[in-house]
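Regression check, flavin-adenine dinucleotide case 353:
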Amino acid sequence: MMGPDVLIVGLGPAGAAAAEAAARAGVRVLAVDRRTEAGRPVQCAEFVPGMLDQELGALDTVTNQRIGRMETFLEDASGDATPDFKGRMIDRAAFDATLVARAVAAGAECRFGAPLRALDATGTATLADGTRLAPHIVVGADGPRSPCGRAIGSVNRELVETRQVRVRLLRPHDATDIFLSAEIPGGYAWLFPQGDEANLGIGANPAARARLKPLLDGLHARLADEGRVGRDVLGFTGGAIPVGGLVRLTGRLGEVPVLLAGDAGGLANPVTGAGIAAAVQTGRLAGRAATAWLAGAAAALDDYSEEVEEVFGPALVRALRRRRDLLARYAEGGPDRAALRRGWIAYPEYWAA
Ligand SMILES: Cc1cc2nc3c(=O)[nH]c(=O)nc-3n(C[C@H](O)[C@H](O)[C@H](O)COP(=O)(O)OP(=O)(O)OC[C@H]3O[C@@H](n4cnc5c(N)ncnc54)[C@H](O)[C@@H]3O)c2cc1C
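Current build output:
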């Protein structure tokens, strides 16, 4: 049986950041992903906030365009502008591949086409090709339906389902457009520009899954009628987003500790669904915590949980409260405009006590 010091499951932003951080500290890192290639297929609307520049630097090579503001469309009203909302639209596949390249350059072994099939009660991992691994510590960066999370009983219980199409963008645009409506329980629709194309998508509670396609088709037709986007669908994607907030981030399988990072740990924002920046940050922290633990710092695992809770907890708790308040309105006939405003980050009501 092979025994890497750190086994990382998943090579999205969280796993790649964890692999780089751990490899830099000089330990033996093996990172595996069931995908055959980094970042593909893309399952993302591809917006990252400006602050990720400070975290990572050198985002220019994967940036398609800059974002200068957010426009929020409440039911059929014209857009409300949020000027102080800067960021980038990235090529997500290139972004993920860049993070993996950094991990490899730091000395991590990164294997694609290598699904984890089982992680047993002793911490022994079995890959789909039968390879058995006995790591000293595991980082679960394996997304919203994390098998590592399941192995330690930390499961994302609330997910949002999404549907997204790629369309031609007929006029240059530098805003992320958000469409809020009582018709979209537990989510919203979006138009995010990518140069002369755009990601047009919708996310909602799983119970509304059957309504995603007709709602997205309706928005697409409306924007095409307005001359903003083309009628053809150039591509299609989807995926789940965890929206229940943090799960327990650490556990043990026998002697082997398991740390969860990114979506596996419930780090995506329950209101906006954004999770790339949090995945990079928590992946990096998990990689460092794993190496500190290997070096004998027994408290490193609890310190990891505490730091993540301290940094991300308040924003996640607020978002979760707003999401729950909004969903509760459906028992009384659905949210009105005031409730929708209180449930979205662009409005001061969201940030009020
Ligand atoms: C439609 C959509 C739009 C989104 N738009 C945005 C956005 O604009 N901005 C933003 O910040 N966030 C967005 N998100 C959320 C964002 O994509 C995630 O928060 C982010 O990808 C989390 O990174 P991660 O590394 O934790 O997980 P992931 O990127 O999901 O990576 C997990 C990896 O684990 C691998 N894996 C899973 N199971 C196994 C297994 N058994 N064996 C081996 N490997 C496995 C997967 O193949 C995957 O590569 C969006 C999500 C969706 C679905």
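Comparison notes: Residues 9-15, 32-35, 43-48, 115-116, 141-143, 147, 162, 164, 201, 239, 241, 262-264, 268, 273-276, 279 surround flavin-adenine dinucleotide (CB under 6 Å). DSSP finds nine helices and 19 strands in the chain. No diff flagged against the previous build.
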